[in-house]
Amino acid sequence: MRENIAEFGQLHPEINGFSVSIGLSVYPEDAIDSQSLVLHADAALHKAKVDSYHEGICFYSEEMESKSLSRRAHYAQIKNAISHQRVIALYQPMVNPFTGDVEAVEALMRIRDEAGNTIPPVEFISLAEETRLIIPLGEQMIHLALAQLKEWHENELSIRLCLNISPVQFLDPHFVPFLLSAIEHYGVKPSMIELEVTESLMLQNLQQIIRDMMQFRQLGISISIDDFGTGYSCLSYLKELPVDVLKIDKAFINQISTENPDEALVQTIAQLAIGMSLQSVAEGVESRFQAQRLKDIGVSLLQGYYFSRPVPAKDIQKNYPL
Ligand code: C2E
Ligand code: CA
Ligand code: CA
Predict the structure, then answer these.
(1) Ligand (nearest to CA of 104)
(2) Tell me, what's the pLDDT at 62?
(3) Which among 19, 232, 237, 268 could bridge 199 via Cys, Cβ 3.0 to 4.6 Å?
(4) Which domain holds residue 53?
(5) CB under 8 Å to 192, separation ≥6 — which residues?
(6) Taking residues 73-94, what's their average pLDDT?
(7) Are 25 and 41 in contact (CB under 8 A)?
């Protein structure tokens, strides 16, 4: 039986140590040539990793075929976008509710395919993270965004730039030197740069993360916790890490509606930020009602379709009155 099975296995870190995932395909049922068997085993391995139902071990099935083909197509699309520099940066304003001034923008990535279609992050970020292609993608994005920041400064526009950094990218040993050399290359002020990281990052090597964040903080770069409240529920990391901003997830902002307003969580997070002398940002603000309530609650900056969708840099205005 053993000779008939192509195996693909991978060790991957879990919260408490390591676990093993195994993908299997069987000769001759699944394929008759070794290359196809290995590709099928790889598809099964992917399923074993992402689907806890399989408890780390999964046999290939035909239904995986189409998924595996679409993964391959997406992978090729990402590789292509990297090699042809078809990464695009859009920007979404973050507005001070009292003045209407844009204090910061979030840079949001898109890629373009060969036909010129724009592909949104939901279609490529998780695969890019899994395959580590997020590193070259993220590097192109940082180049684009820092060049834009430089241009704004040359035009005397004082806007802080927020960059989304995936845990894969943040934990890569080249990330810190890469970012520092890019900052030097574009001659931008580190105090105008903010890194948005998610709580899932804190589940990794916390000592290394603290060291890197301290290094960024010493230069004046700020750190924002994205999607705050949706992930890790242990808040003690907030005291250990040099965090500057809590970004309240849009799922909580959604609950502020005229019909059935539920503001408890937003109020709690905004109070937590005030109590810890942090800034708060509300994302996914879609209505005037929400904007007004968030202003009254004391949220520092507002971001969402109510003010603007993510747009090319030239379409960012200086002011978006509430
Ligand atoms: P995110 O960091 O939570 O970004 C906010 C997402 O919410 C963006 O989606 C934005 O377009 C969308 N959004 C903003 N305002 C509203 C609103 O009022 N209503 C609704 N329904 N949505 C709103 P987008 O641009 O599709 O990005 C999705 C995710 O992809 C981001 O979520 C982020 O996790 C990831 N991403 C985007 N750009 C980058 C990047 O450069 N690097 C990395 N690592 N991840 C990125
Ligand atoms: Ca973000
Ligand atoms: Ca977010």
Answers:
(1) 2
(2) 82
(3) 232
(4) 4-61
(5) 149, 153, 158, 159, 160, 161
(6) 96
(7) yes
